[in-house]
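Consider this:
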Amino acid sequence: MMNTDPIADYLTRVRNAIKANHRVVEIPASNLKKEITKVLFEKGYIANYKFEDNGPQGTIKVALKYHPITKIPAIRSISRISKPGLRKYAGMDTMPRVLNGLGIAILSTSKGVMTDKEARTQNVGGEVLCYVY
């Protein structure tokens, strides 16, 4: 199966799993998707993750995070910003702030995949992949 935008597919699978109240979602792996998963885990938006090397590509198993009592998901919204048809880049001065700092923007920079706050401290810009809050 050929996919034109694998990052959008990743985000859509996570979004759909949250709406269906799934605990775990399986996603075809790539290096960029693995880095996005690590950022989501570090910032507390997912409970856990596991990389499995089965087949030529491998898979990422993501354990979604919900509030223990109210069952509200940790990820309220996850949306793609830079698309293959229209790339969005942000420099140091034009770095986006998601929900005035309450959410995160995930960027692909020359120093790797990181959040908008980390990019500001390291003084780098890059492609804005998605917003999460």
Q: What stands out?
A: The first strand starts at residue 24 and ends at 28. Residues 26 and 61 are 5 Å apart (CA to CA). DSSP finds three helices and eight strands in the chain. The mean pLDDT is 94.
